[in-house]
Amino acid sequence: MHVPKIVKIKRIIEESPTVKTFIFDWEVKNEIPGQFMMVWNLHDEKPMSISMIDPLKNEIGISIKNIGEFTGQVHELTPGDKLGLRGPYGRGFHIAGSKVLAVGGGIGMAPIVAFSEEASRIGVDVHVVSAASTMNELLFDDRIQRSRSKLLTCTDDGSHGLCGFGTDLAEKAMSEDDYDMIVSCGPEIMMKKLFEMVEKFKIPAQFSLERYMKCGMGLCGQCCVDDLGWRVCVEGPVFWTDELKMITEFGKYKRDSSGVKHSIS
Amino acid sequence: MHVPKIVKIKRIIEESPTVKTFIFDWEVKNEIPGQFMMVWNLHDEKPMSISMIDPLKNEIGISIKNIGEFTGQVHELTPGDKLGLRGPYGRGFHIAGSKVLAVGGGIGMAPIVAFSEEASRIGVDVHVVSAASTMNELLFDDRIQRSRSKLLTCTDDGSHGLCGFGTDLAEKAMSEDDYDMIVSCGPEIMMKKLFEMVEKFKIPAQFSLERYMKCGMGLCGQCCVDDLGWRVCVEGPVFWTDELKMITEFGKYKRDSSGVKHSIS
Amino acid sequence: MTILEIKLCGIKMRNPTMLAAGILGSTASSLNWAARSGAGAVVTKSFGLSPNKGYANPTTVEVTGGVINAIGLSNPGVDNFKDELLKLNKSVPAIASLYGANPEEFSEIATRVEGLVDALELNVSCPHAIGGCGSAIGQDPLLTAEIVGSVKKSVKIPVFVKLTPNVTDIVEIALHARDAGADALTMINSLGPGMRIDIETGKPILKNKFGGLSGPAIKPVAIRCVYDVFDSVDIPIIGVGGIRDHEDVLEFLYAGASCVQIGTSIMYEGMDIFGKILNGLERFMDEKGYGSVDELVGIAHK
Amino acid sequence: MTILEIKLCGIKMRNPTMLAAGILGSTASSLNWAARSGAGAVVTKSFGLSPNKGYANPTTVEVTGGVINAIGLSNPGVDNFKDELLKLNKSVPAIASLYGANPEEFSEIATRVEGLVDALELNVSCPHAIGGCGSAIGQDPLLTAEIVGSVKKSVKIPVFVKLTPNVTDIVEIALHARDAGADALTMINSLGPGMRIDIETGKPILKNKFGGLSGPAIKPVAIRCVYDVFDSVDIPIIGVGGIRDHEDVLEFLYAGASCVQIGTSIMYEGMDIFGKILNGLERFMDEKGYGSVDELVGIAHK
Ligand SMILES: Cc1cc2nc3c(=O)[nH]c(=O)nc-3n(C[C@H](O)[C@H](O)[C@H](O)COP(=O)(O)OP(=O)(O)OC[C@H]3O[C@@H](n4cnc5c(N)ncnc54)[C@H](O)[C@@H]3O)c2cc1C
Ligand SMILES: Cc1cc2nc3c(=O)[nH]c(=O)nc-3n(C[C@H](O)[C@H](O)[C@H](O)COP(=O)(O)OP(=O)(O)OC[C@H]3O[C@@H](n4cnc5c(N)ncnc54)[C@H](O)[C@@H]3O)c2cc1C
Ligand SMILES: Cc1cc2nc3c(=O)[nH]c(=O)nc-3n(C[C@H](O)[C@H](O)[C@H](O)COP(=O)(O)O)c2cc1C
Ligand SMILES: Cc1cc2nc3c(=O)[nH]c(=O)nc-3n(C[C@H](O)[C@H](O)[C@H](O)COP(=O)(O)O)c2cc1C
Ligand code: FES
Ligand code: FES
Known about the structure:
The complex is a heterotetramer, with 2 copies of chain A and 2 copies of chain C.
Chain A: E1 5-8, E2 11-14, E3 19-25, E4 36-40, E5 45-54, E6 59-65, H1 69-75, E7 82-89, E8 99-105, H2 109-121, E9 125-132, H3 141-146, E10 150-155, E11 162-163, H4 166-176, E12 181-185, H5 188-201, E13 205-208, E14 238-240, H6 241-244, E15 253-255, E16 261-263
Parallel strand pairs in A: 8-9, 8-12, 9-10, 10-11, 12-13
Antiparallel strand pairs in A: 1-7, 2-3, 3-6, 4-5, 4-7, 5-6, 13-14, 15-16
Helix pairs in contact in A: 4-5
Chain C: E1 6-8, E2 11-13, E3 17-19, H1 28-36, E4 41-43, E5 60-63, E6 66-69, H2 77-86, E7 94-98, H3 103-113, E8 119-123, H4 135-138, H5 141-154, E9 159-163, H6 170-179, E10 184-187, E11 191-195, E12 210-214, H7 219-232, E13 237-240, H8 246-255, E14 259-262, H9 265-269, H10 273-288
Helix pairs in contact in C: 3-5, 5-6, 6-7, 7-8, 8-10
One flavin mononucleotide is lined by residues 20-23, 45-46, 60, 67, 69, 71, 73, 97, 123, 126, 162, 189-190, 214-215, 218, 240-243, 262-265 of chain C.
């Protein structure tokens, strides 16, 4: 049933000045990195990627960047406070290949860290490119290192790791190493650049898209993308490059809650 | 779903001047002798016991005595005509014991023949008392004999078998033989007498009751019996003597379609 | 006294559940059975002045999330039904559901049974009644008021009025019933009406062609009706429509119902449904620290 | 020409199914996707004069047998929507669903899009529209007639009117729409409205508190509405409400619908639902020896 289940916040981890991870007790069935939850704070409901899946302790986590009204409200909550969760929704990352490059930018690291943990657990050699604007916005370093994935970091201001964008670091990695597959989540301009790169390197890749979501369950059409009309909430949010080639609006524009288009820049 | 399934009449067997058996293709799952179907002839819908269950050929049959408008209409149908069936409904006969006496009176033989076939098949030694008003109203002789049950017949007018009532013949059988259990279906006055008899002989017994039915699915309350309020369509139509002792109206009265009581005589 | 006990229009009930009208309520025996099974009160099948066979079969057919029925208010008439009322074991309050064609008929029946029951429920909302007896009344605010007024003048016991959701504005009808003196409102009677057509033959399955929709499928509408009326009418509401478990009961209480009735789900769960729901409700209240059902009523409006 | 082909108000459709308004109909891309998936025609999301964000989330929640939704008619406004209409691949007829607050608004929008679509569907029946745009109109026979009349005067393409079941008498509304010039009637918009309350917090889940009920749960009511209106109104009926398989489609045709729309069940079955239904329908007609869909229409009345 597509109905929010009320859960209590179990722990909150301050990941950075703007990002918090909220952990819940949750009976893990087949939650997959790249899938998302619809999160209801009793006022509004928004999509959030699953950033942590612990099938042993039966916990999941979501990591939220404070950028507006809703995310601001959620950031004010404390352990014991209630949220409504429904999901998991959408199609997550397909884990394939034995050496994988995972590229996350900003809060896009949320599904990427979950992916790197899950993939490492089953023996995949994961290299993670973690990109942020500045050092103390770099997310999940410790979890990535603990998962035995290789961590490559970069910051826009050079305060940590390579000075530059995630795409620069990813390009470096791709020229130095042979990857079977790439997965990525982050700002769409970053992913657009990465998309062109993987085309050049001829590496299969999956990208996680964000579009405005209302129902999350494939009904309202708010998240449909041109030209095929696919629903990001059901057919996505993760797409292979083959599919992305038919999503002509990728990297160009997205629609807001009334359906008006806004260009991506 | 409690929805009539339209089936075509496959064969019709004329059992007697007033009784016909209608056979249908039907995926037999766990239909049990003593259970009934709601039979819709596209005008009215009435309860009818399952009189034949063939799990190999996937067929079931119902046997209908022509006594009024509905039964008259169904008697006019020919093979290929459609009826709507829903069911099976109710609790059938529990097969128990190694030597069982099955007592049927008139059209009450319908579930009894199904019982004797089923019980014989699993190795129970079944003796059947088949009672009718007159010889050519005796039902299902051939099937009972084929099932290797022992057939005892009687008619009110003595035209075949013992001259007398089913209860007389049953009493004779009970005094001559040791039965582990009795099952019965027929006119309620017959069953009432048999009920008193088995009390005397201290033999466990099950009786199949008829009450006016509308929904057949336990909702409308039309078939509820005093004093416990049980629904004949769900808790019945088959009851053990223990249960019958609490059905105080048994043998006394029944209600019609408006709920008005009529005494049984 | 347990935490489930409530008082409805002065009537003490051991818990906030009732058997809904017309489900297994045609005999004292089945009403007593519901009481033995845990119901906090029982409502009879609706009865009228004279015996009524109702419609021919099929009178019920299942649909997604419930059933549609056109029983047609079959009942043995008030005089025969009085015999049943006399046999009620009185372990819980009994409510007589009445129907009629006009104010006089309603009052006549009400007077005849007043001494035998704890309250009356006026069924002005059956969506498949014969001869203008049912929702034809409940869809007309003035006629509803007239009938309620007439019955209120005739009897002293509390009078509940059962409303149909099949109107453009249920609040308007509720206000008229209240103004005419209704002591409580029961909401909702079956919805629609609806129809189911057989695919093979093209025939509407019910003999009456259409019938009222009941069961879990109608719960969202019932909840909304209760919620809306709670906001504008100050008499108790008895919630009914699609209840299958204790969470459904909570939803009705939160919306503003003081207590609830259970009907169609007995088809799925049997009479045990009352026991199961009461256990669930008591456990929930205990866990959350609620001391009485009243504390739950109307929470969704806060 | 296949046996599934029909003609509706002069518009040729390759089969009698349409995508219902508001389900995945906000972009040309998704409308084209429905067409590629088999839909015989597509209806857009309802749009109005100016961009509308609709209600905040939660805008949808599942219930037994369907969902309740209060999307609130979010749309980018007619001017932006014209860009979408221009991108329709035109492989199947396209129907623009419009809403407005008064006759002038309806006519204005209708005129602006007339050249881009094959027909209009007037949404006077949304149960959760802002500012009197939705069922507030469709519950008023005179206002409905006024709007239909006004649009009919403004455009030459066929005008369908989509009715709400949330009225005391849908036949009355249907007759008024017909008399005002409606070319066809679409029935039904979502029902109720309904509400779902969260058990843990006591809060209505939808931001707008209540929303329209859709999905299999409402099918019996939709079938009855189509059946009733077919008896009294002589223009084509487009049936909608709860269709999930080809048997449901047959039920609507038998009741009197000339064709059908499919909405909520896409949530259960995905876009493949059109292909599955068309296969089922064609197989059924073939087995029974039907030569055209028209032969199925209204069978339940015989
Ligand atoms: C599949 C998916 C996964 C996401 N995962 C995460 C995550 O793990 N962590 C995280 O912090 N954020 C995530 N987001 C983005 C998050 O949903 C928005 O940032 C958030 O809704 C902003 O809400 P706000 O009120 O704080 O800001 P607002 O000021 O309301 O919005 C800021 C921007 O967020 C986007 N947004 C707002 N509402 C929605 C909505 N209902 N659906 C989609 N986008 C919206 C719009 O682009 C908007 O311009 C995800 C989005 C999607 C679609
Ligand atoms: C559980 C059960 C199993 C039955 N099995 C058989 C069977 O195998 N074969 C058979 O021929 N008959 C069976 N009957 C009886 C059968 O249902 C009725 O005889 C039949 O409905 C009479 O219909 P009619 O229109 O022909 O006669 P009517 O003239 O309408 O009725 C004659 C009598 O049949 C009974 N009856 C009528 N309608 C119903 C009803 N809806 N429910 C119950 N009783 C009714 C009443 O006692 C009535 O007085 C069974 C009844 C029940 C309750
Ligand atoms: C078979 C059946 C018979 C009913 N008979 C009556 C009746 O006689 N009087 C009445 O007021 N309501 C009657 N109802 C309506 C119920 O009391 C109740 O209002 C409705 O079914 C919704 O509740 P539910 O979903 O729990 O069944 C009947 C409903 C059913 C299913
Ligand atoms: C999410 C959602 C949005 C809808 N939006 C509209 C709309 O914009 N205009 C309209 O006329 N109907 C709208 N409807 C109603 C549907 O078109 C349809 O009439 C109703 O849902 C019943 O059909 P169904 O059960 O197949 O969904 C919407 C329904 C849903 C579920
Ligand atoms: S958010 Fe509604 S279809 Fe994707
Ligand atoms: S026939 Fe309706 S309850 Fe038994």
